[in-house]
Design a protein that fits this description.
Elements (H helix, E strand, L loop, with lengths): L1 H14 L10 E4 L6 H13 L4 E4 L5 H9 L3 E5 L3 E3 L1 H5 L3 H15 L4 E10 L4 H14 L7 E5 L13 E6 L12 E4 L10 H9 L8 E4 H10 L3 H10 L19 H20 L1 H12 L1 H9 L7 H25 L2 H10 L10 H26 L6 H7 L7 H12 L5 H27 L6 H24 L2 H12 L2
Helix pairs in contact: 2-3, 10-13, 10-17, 11-12, 13-15, 13-17, 13-18, 14-20, 15-16, 17-18, 18-19
């Protein structure tokens, strides 16, 4: 009974607006330093800025809690469960479960903690996810006296279940009015605008009618922002302590950088490579139309080694690898938001091996395309006794891929002005079909010149290729966590 009464009073305190409060309630999403001295310095610095709320995701030592109590911070403790899907709770290993239980008990024992966050952004649209979270909360035990909350990326007006008392809304990715039942806000700007002042001022303006709700800023971001804009510290202090704060902006307010420049430059580079190869390589000029208009005779010339140059094939392969990077970039940016990328990187760290920025995604596309090209060429060369020389495959396999230069150009033309995503999906599908079709057509062209054991060669090329593709499709279909993560990333605003 006491727990429910406490939760109800907290909800009233967090949700009901009081017009008499003019100054803002500002908090920090604190990445706690490992050293006690650095943690103490952080707390004193936050107090000097006028910050009154902390959000943490780890257990603290007694000395740090004593300092928090002396500085009268209000604390929200969250569990380290980010971008949660159903499997985040249903397939949780025993070690991690014990760790979370200990963290909950730690938060529950602290007087300054006013809420326990179960997850930070999750598949709240999924009924199975909501049921799994409820089951997890029930396992935590009835002795937990603190109200539960979660961090939400959407603006859905209701809580996902009665297990939660409030939610903190992640905002900053879109210039939209913040609405719905909330217990606070967590600023999370777009990567291209994270060090600019305009989005921060926009958030403060959009939430000006809910001044009693805390606005949390990530501690590393806040420190970096103050390093870049020293006056920002005074701005935060004014909002936290003054009834009539002013948010000054520089004369030249930061403009959002166009992250699409990379694909425009790369597309121009591909067309430059194509034009230079066409103009300066006579073999390329002669083969360009002959492959499509006199395909049978072109194959005979390659098998008989009348055409031996590797330069033409390598040129097309390089063009196609760059096109693969462009297509992957456009596709992912059509499907996922910056927050969606964070979800993918959180679950699959390998995706960040080339960096989490724009260039990293483009490099992944180029690398993935190039690896498939190399594997396909080596497969066709080794599995077919009719192709004794690598140059035969290099001069046959890439030519159908040349059409993907046109597809990549069309995808870029649709994506840049913010065109129809469905058309981008269809063109991407056509890109993949031509990619797969290039292997199949080359296999058919070369197998015809096999004089013995032709069924075995068919099995080693087309049969093996079909088995691999089917296996990949089955693996994806039978990987519910992968599908759930992708669905979550696509849902995030």
């Amino acid at each position: 009974m006491g727990n429910r009464l406490f939760a109800a009073l907290l909800c009233i305190f967090l949700v009901v607006p009081f017009s008499g409060w003019a100054q803002r309630t500002v908090g920090i999403d604190w990445q706690v330093p490992a050293k006690k001295s650095e943690a103490a310095a952080d707390l004193h610095y936050f107090a000097e800025l006028g910050l009154t709320h902390l959000q943490i995701d780890r257990a603290l030592d007694r000395q740090t809690w004593q300092l928090i109590d002396n500085l009268q911070f209000t604390v929200f403790g969250k569990l380290p469960v980010d971008f949660a899907v159903t499997q985040s709770f249903s397939e949780m290993d025993s070690t991690f479960t014990v760790r979370l239980q200990k963290l909950v008990d730690h938060y529950n024992a602290q007087n300054r903690v006013q809420g326990i966050g179960i997850f930070s952004v999750g598949a709240t649209y999924d009924e199975e996810f909501r049921q799994t979270v409820s089951s997890f909360i029930q396992r935590l035990g009835k002795e937990v006296q603190k109200p539960f909350y979660y961090i939400a990326a959407g603006s859905k007006s209701t809580l996902i279940s009665s297990d939660f008392s409030f939610r903190i809304i992640l905002t900053g990715h879109a210039n939209k009015t913040v609405s719905g039942q909330a217990g606070g806000f967590l600023y999370n700007p777009e990567p291209d605008m994270q060090w600019h002042l305009v989005p921060v001022k926009s958030l403060l303006s959009r939430t000006s009618n809910r001044v009693q709700l805390p606005i949390f800023f990530e501690s590393s971001w806040l420190k970096g922002m103050i390093n870049r804009h020293p006056d920002f510290a005074q701005t935060i202090r004014l909002y936290a302590t003054s009834a009539d704060p002013v948010f000054p902006l520089p004369q030249k307010a930061g403009q959002k950088m166009d992250s699409n420049t990379i694909i425009v430059v790369m597309l121009l580079l591909v067309w430059f490579i194509f034009g230079a190869t066409y103009n300066y390589n006579p073999v390329f000029r002669k083969s360009f139309l002959r492959y499509f208009t006199g395909h049978k005779f072109f194959v005979e010339d390659v098998i008989q080694r009348h055409i031996r140059s590797l330069f033409t094939g390598f040129s097309i392969l390089i063009q196609h690898a760059i096109c693969g990077g462009i297509v992957l970039y456009c596709l992912f940016h059509s499907v996922f938001s910056p927050l969606g990328y964070e979800a993918l990187y959180s679950h699959y760290n390998i995706l960040a091996i080339f960096g989490t920025g724009v260039l990293g995604l483009f490099i992944w596309g180029c690398f993935f395309t190039l690896v498939i090209e190399v594997i396909s060429i080596l497969w066709l060369w080794i599995a077919n006794p009719a192709t004794k020389y690598l140059s035969q495959i290099v001069n046959l396999y890439p030519w159908l891929l040349q059409l993907n230069l046109i597809i990549a150009t069309l995808i870029t033309a649709v994506y840049l002005p913010g065109g129809n995503n469905v058309l981008i999906y269809l063109l991407t599908g056509l890109f993949v079909i031509l990619f797969i079709g290039s292997f199949i057509l080359t296999a058919l062209d070369t197998v015809r010149h096999v004089t013995s054991r032709r069924p075995w060669v068919y099995a080693g090329t087309l049969g093996g290729y079909s088995i691999v593709l089917t296996g990949i499709i089955i693996w994806i279909v039978l990987s519910p966590k992968l599908l759930n993560v992708v669905e979550l990333a696509a849902h995030l605003p």
